Amino acid sequence: xxxxxxAPEVQHWRDARRAELLAxxxxxxxxxxxxxxxxxxxxxxxxxxxxxxMVVGGYWPFRGEFDPRFLMRQMRDGGSRLALPVVVRKNxxxxxxxxxxxxxxxxxxxxxxxxxxxxxxxxxxLLIPPVGFDEHGYRLGYGGGYFDRTLAAMHPxxxxxxxxxxxxxxxxxxPQAHDVAMDFIVTEAGVYSVDEAGLTLLNAAPVxxxxxxxxxxxxxxxxxxxxxx
Length: 229
Fold this sequence. Notes:
By secondary structure, the protein is an alpha/beta fold. The protein has one domain (about 5-220): NagB/RpiA/CoA transferase-like (Rossmann fold, 3-Layer(aba) Sandwich), CATH 3.40.50.10420. About 30% of the residues lie in helices and about 25% in strands. It contains 5 helices and 14 strands. It has helices at about 5-25, 30-45, 70-75, 145-155, 210-220; strands at about 55, 80-85, 95-100, 105, 115, 120, 125-130, 130-135, 140, 160-165, 170, 185, 190-195, 200. It has a 9-stranded mixed β-sheet. It has a 3-stranded mixed β-sheet with strand order 9-8-11, with helices on one face. A two-stranded antiparallel ribbon has the order 4-5. The radius of gyration is 17 Å and the shape is globular.
């Protein structure tokens, strides 16, 4: 791979890879995608039981992403509070509003449902879907920068779990200063921890120690309800 240096070069490269990855993911047959969804759900439920009872930011699946809704229902049954992202204004951090099955929603951009009139929450854990992810846990998104701005504004940082499929893996996304690495990447192949050395496949439950420590820190320092605007 040739060296990519300037911001315009990186942007051009990312645009091309994003289009390729989306085309590949959209072409996955439904039975295969269903199997991968089940495996990712099982990995998350098995390796991250401490998410039960926490405030978890999920998402509504789009363009072949991992579908977290079954897991989200499980977590709610286990005492978690769930939230979905809401775009308040362009080029600003996301807001997270509480969601549960049957919660009032409206259709927003791209036709995705977002909660309306429910409490604004501050997630202690974020499930973040990548278009692509690389060997050091960096995530390639859709290009709007919403998750980058959101993570930059969150103190303390939530536990960041990238959830996707192995077909989305890249050697590098050529990370820039604004890019934030995930704490873990979960695919149908397993759970990967992220550290300075890159991705490490964790083959055994129970909860990875790093996950417990990070989640505990987020839980101790987080304000789970956002102040009124």
